[in-house]
């Protein structure tokens, strides 16, 4: 499967005493990305929940085995925080073009680097094995520069690869600088290069601004290599839509689509059933166990994990959620919460951050929980809110039970023991504690602690000797 899907390699940014690197990947991410029309730097726009530059780093690290050097600009400084744990960063003072970005990188690289692998930050579907082949292509031909070229279905806007009559690559012309004839060429430059570092250090200063845009083009190095009598190797690849780069949000959406198909295929091959994979949205970091069933219109985000045989019902959204095996989530939202095994959630439940649901519990219609820990076999079937609470095993939460956890200034906790029975419409004014086996009557407003085994009824609730009148099911709903 794609290098994109591999776990990120644990590389740390290079330290001065690290072993000398022969080949260093340089990732270009200083461009303004104006075509995205966004205040977020282009390379931080996410694909399957992960900033696109992270996939580029995966591929670069897979090919070189060392931390890449990422070129950012003052306007894309936010990129630094995203990648600082796995790459080095250098700043291009002004985005004056890809040639200037490479010059900035070369100035930041240590002596002894023999080869640079240049990767645009906006080709997130690039694979590590393609970059490895690119390095091999340059080595085989002793070329000054090797590039990846694509016979593009739609070459609009991209640099064209121009060859002489013998088929040798002679130069690249940018779309904006091209003649009509040149624009008719469908072989495009993918923006991926392996370059002889010694040679390019000598030649990079000779780049001159384009008449059309005023930018320094890295692509002009191709003609320099030929002028110097050096070879330029082209690794030609099929146009599978992976390499034409992301410049606007329509291209971003298409890349996301491609990646999503790959991610879903991978999980289905790993034993996950998807009733309609075209409507299943899984972030890069999601993990699913065997025999998980995902119904239509399911969105699983962040580091969500789902255990064996668990069914995620139509319309559910899970965000950084951990759901145990043999459970079911029906049309519900679970955020940053943990659900153990044999649990049923929903329909229409909302588990907000910090919720923990113990084994064999049942959370029902219109139940909301926040920062709350439920023991095992807890039943919370209908229309209720539990916030900042702890409930012991075998507790029954009656319909309409509410923890009044907020006094307008501070949040307070509600502590409920094991085997507690909360009658319908119980209001629990926190902070309050109910001991094991305590009970509340229908409509009780509990403002004081209820000791173990005691019954509290009324508004405000007072203790009364528990004498069973009806079965618990009648009161608790
Ligand atoms: C570039 C190539 C083009 C190729 C295309 C492939 C040049 C001049 N053109 O065009 O031949 O077909 O990629 O996708 O190289 N960047 C900087 N600093 C800058 C300008 C850009 O770091 O001053 C970075 C951008 O953040 C981006 C990458 O370089 O990641 C490419 O820049 P972009 O403006 O997208 O170039 P294209 O017009 O797509
Ligand atoms: Ca681009």
Write a structural description:
By secondary structure, the chain is an alpha/beta fold. The protein folds into two domains: about 25-235, Spore Coat Polysaccharide Biosynthesis Protein SpsA, Chain A; about 250-470, 3 Solenoid (UDP N-Acetylglucosamine Acyltransferase, domain 1), CATH 2.160.10. The chain contains nine helices and 40 strands. The strands form six sheets. The protein has a 17-stranded mixed β-sheet that branches. The protein has a nine-stranded parallel β-sheet with strand order 14-17-20-23-26-28-30-33-36, with no helix packed on it. β4 (about 70), α2 (about 80-85) and β5 (about 90) form a beta-alpha-beta unit. Uridine-diphosphate-N-acetylglucosamine binds near residues 30, 71, 97 and 174.
Task: Provide a concise account of the structure shown.
By secondary structure, this protein is an alpha/beta fold. Helix content is 18%, strand content 29%. The chain is elongated and about 100 Å long.
């Amino acid at each position: 499967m794609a290098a994109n899907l591999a776990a990120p390699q644990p590389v740390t940014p290079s330290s001065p005493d690290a072993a000398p690197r022969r080949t260093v990947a340089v990732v270009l991410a200083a461009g303004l990305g104006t075509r995205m029309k966004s205040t977020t730097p282009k390379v931080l726009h996410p694909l399957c929940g992960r900033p696109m530059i992270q996939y580029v780093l995966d591929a670069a690290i897979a090919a070189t085995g060392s931390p890449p050097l990422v070129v950012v600009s003052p306007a894309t400084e936010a990129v630094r925080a995203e990648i600082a744990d796995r790459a080095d960063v250098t700043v291009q003072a002004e985005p004056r073009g890809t040639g200037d970005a490479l010059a900035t990188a070369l100035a930041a690289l240590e002596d002894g680097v023999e080869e640079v692998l240049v990767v645009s930050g906006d080709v997130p579907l690039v694979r590590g094995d393609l970059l490895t082949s690119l390095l091999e292509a340059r080595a085989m031909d002793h070329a000054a520069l090797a590039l990846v070229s694509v016979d593009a279905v739609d070459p609009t806007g991209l640099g064209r690869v121009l060859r002489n009559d013998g088929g040798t690559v002679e130069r690249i012309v940018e779309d904006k600088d091209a003649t009509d004839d040149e624009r008719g060429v469908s072989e495009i430059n993918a923006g991926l290069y392996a370059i002889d570092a010694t040679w390019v250090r000598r030649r990079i200063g000779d780049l001159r601004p384009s008449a059309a845009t005023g930018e320094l083009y890295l692509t002009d190095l191709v003609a320099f290599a030929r002028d110097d009598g050096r070879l330029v190797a082209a690794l030609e690849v099929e146009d599978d839509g992976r390499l034409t780069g992301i410049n606007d949000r329509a291209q971003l959406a298409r890349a996301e689509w491609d990646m999503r198909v790959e991610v879903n295929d991978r999980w289905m091959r790993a034993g996950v059933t998807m009733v309609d994979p075209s409507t299943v949205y899984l972030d890069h970091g999601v993990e699913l166990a065997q025999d998980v069933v995902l119904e239509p219109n399911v969105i699983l985000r962040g580091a969500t994990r789902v255990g064996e045989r668990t069914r995620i019902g139509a319309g559910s959204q899970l965000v950084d959620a951990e759901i145990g095996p043999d459970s079911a989530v029906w049309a519900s939202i679970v955020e940053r919460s943990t659900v153990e095994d044999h649990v049923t959630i929903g329909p229409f439940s909302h588990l907000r951050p910090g919720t923990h649901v113990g084994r064999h519990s049942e959370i029902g219609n219109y139940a909301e929980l926040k920062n709350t820990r439920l023991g095992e076999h807890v039943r919370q079937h209908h229309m209720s809110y539990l916030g900042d609470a702890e409930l012991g095993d075998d507790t029954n939460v009656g319909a309409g039970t509410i923890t009044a956890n907020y006094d307008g200034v501070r949040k307070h906790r509600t502590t409920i023991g094991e085997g507690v029975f909360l009658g319908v419409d119980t209001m629990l004014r926190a902070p309050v504690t109910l001991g094991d086996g305590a009970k509340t009557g229908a409509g009780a407003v509990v403002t004081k602690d209820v000791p173990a085994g005691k019954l509290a009824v009324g508004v405000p609730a007072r203790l009364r000797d528990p004498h069973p009148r009806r079965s618990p099911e009648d009161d608790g709903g």
